[in-house]
Amino acid sequence: MANDKKMVEAITSMDTDFAQWYTDICKKADLIDYSSVKGCMIIRPYGYAIWENIQAILDRRFKELGHENVYMPMFIPESLLNKEKDHVEGFAPEVAWVTHGGSERLTEKLCVRPTSETLFCEHYANIIKSYRDLPKLYNQWCSVVRWEKTTRPFLRSREFLWQEGHTMHETAKEAREETVQMLNVYADFHENDLAIPVVKGAKTPSDKFAGAEDTYAIEALMHDGKALQAATSHYFGDGFAKAFDITYATKENTLAHPYQTSWGCTTRMIGGIIMTHGDDNGLVLPPAVAPIQVVIIPVAAHKEGVMEAANALREKLSAHKIRVKLDDSDNSPGWKYAEYEMKGVPVRVEIGPRDIEANQCVLVMRHNREKLFVSLDGIEQTVAETLVKVRDGMYAKALENRDRRTYVCRTIDEIKESVAKGDGFVKAMWCGSEECEDEVKAQTGIGSRCIPFGDESVSDVCVCCQKPAKKLVYWAKAY
RNA sequence: CGAGGUGUGGCUCAGCUUGGUAGAGCGCUACGUUCGGGACGUAGAAGUCGCAAGUUCGAAUCUUGUCACCUCGACCA
Description:
The protein is α+β, with helices and mostly antiparallel strands.
């Protein structure tokens, strides 16, 4: 019995104003607050708990693959940042500089890290001496600063939390494998844990990370049809190693430069969760990262036996490793229903006198608000299965939205027609020239997102110049 | 960085045109009644009207300046 009636009048409807809807969710689900510095958000406990769950899952996977966590300084001397030409050109416009220590002017200004390639390279130059020191598989969790002009919670803030993996390898092949492996880790995490379908692919040369030979990314489509780059993985070749003079002795006692990768994902993923799964009643959280997976709401809590039954239920679920909250506050049940829907709790359990009499309780799934009347016997299995069902349902819903908003186009005019129908992914062939890429953007307003893995083809010729083309490109408006 | 918008109890806003010493709803606190989709009553606390100058007997209101935030574009995770 799905019920589409809008219960929470406080949130702007998605259809009315998607941007305002997004901001409302961030604030009203208690994810963030604004601070006194533009573009720097306070991540509140409920929002931070989501990040902690994301960290826990990814950190375990990184470590299973042999990566070690380290911590690098947050300051980079100007001279160090300047060592790799493309890199500094890419980042210089948006770095924040420290010029004073107390009242003393520094002899060399320090930039607040926008990313840490240069710091890792400097360190690697010191510790990598022999082929026996390779591979080096380091990761760090930290915040970085990029002085963005326009900012939005989670999607674009001046300081944001992320992880950055930086690895060094003996061969280009091994480094390339690492790059793709980590992209796959991100993709699996999005699809399985966040229930967000993604397209894996390569960035076009103009869209590569500053200093990278190849940049790979996963692209997700948000509910409004705009694309979000959810994570990236870069192959650097030995360019940075040469710029930073990182050399090691090979088995044959020759000097060689190692091959390098970096890969990262950020708190932006929380924005992706909001815009993929959220609805007009609020946030909808994937069970894997939801701070509260199940909320128990006692009905007529003052009646005999209700709180006892609710407490017993909580203990059972908790013992089954389910993140459960029993809300025993004196707010009305209706208020609580709305509150936890706003906060995106995947499953709600209602238990009242009538249920107890019938040895049952009511489960309500957040993503479709379907109600299930289930026996209290074996309730922990039933709830665990329901959480899986919620994840599957969320994924299917997100995939349906993406499919419905994906268009195949063979000419610029076809792209224009699809854009007129609404935002989404456009699949179209590309000859590989930057002129055509720019021309598509200029004429249609949508840009290239990625060249997906695989050899899918929708035509033999470029959507723009009509010359032979082998590469399929996903195009879209992006966040 | 360009274009718009907004700053008044915790939140959303009214009041500003035409200057006269600050209001509403929600929230909060206490007590009571309620409780299966955002309950109700009674009582109460809470605001240097973003900041700074200026005009004036008197400024939330007029003038000038300034700061911050939001939205949309261009650039970026």
